[in-house]
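Hey,
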Amino acid sequence: MHGGKGGRTILVSFSGIDGAGKSTQIENLAAHLKRDGLRVHYVRFWDDVARLKGIRETSGHKLFKGDKGVGSPDAPINRRDKNVQSGWMTCVRLFLYLVDAVSLRLVFSRVARAGYDLVIFDRYTYDELANLNLQNGFIQAYVRMIMKLVPKPHVSYLLDADPVQARARKPEYPLDFLHTNRNAYLRLAQMIGGVTVISPNPIAEVEAEVVSHAVRKLSFSIADQVHGGLTVERS
C-alpha cells in the first residue's frame, strides 16, 4: 500500500475545545495504525499549517495582554486571543483563516506526495471556524467558501468534552468561553456534515470508540488501496 503513489493518502482530523484530550487520542490511534503496518504522519495545525503568527501574537499578547504558553492544572494562565470577540478581531480572523486554508492545501499536498498511507491532523480548519459567529449569514457563507478550499478529511473526529473537566485539564480560557466554544463546534459539525462526534466519556472508552470507528471506516478503504483504488464512505 502506497498512499500518494499507488493510491490516495487518507486524511483524519481531530478537533475539539482545549482540554478535550485530542493529543491523547491521536497518539493512541496512530500507535494502533502503525502496529497494522501503516505509514502514519502527524501534522500539528498550529505549528505546521497556521501562518502569520506575528499577527496572532501581537493581538493576543500585546494588544489584549494575554498570557503566553500552555496552561496546566498546576500553572493556569489567562489567554486572550480566540476568546476575544469584536468586529475588528472578526475581520482579522477572516483574513487569517483564509490564509491558513490555502496553507492547509499546500501542506496536505506536500505530505501526500511523500507517500504516507495516512495523515492525522491535530486540529483542523474546523478549530478556527468554531471561533466565528456561526449564526451570522455572512459568516455561514464564509464557512462554505473555506470548506471548498480545504481538503475534506476522510474521517473527522470532534471530541466533545465537558467544559468544566476540560478546563481542569487545561486552564487557559474562561469557563463561559469554553461553553460557547463547545456549542460552536457542535453547530459547525451540523453545518458541514461528515463529522463524527465522540461523546465525553472516560479516556479508555473514548479510545475504544475512536479506534473501533476508524477500523470500520478505513479498513475497506485500505484494502481497496492495495488493489489500486480508494473508496471512502462519508458520514
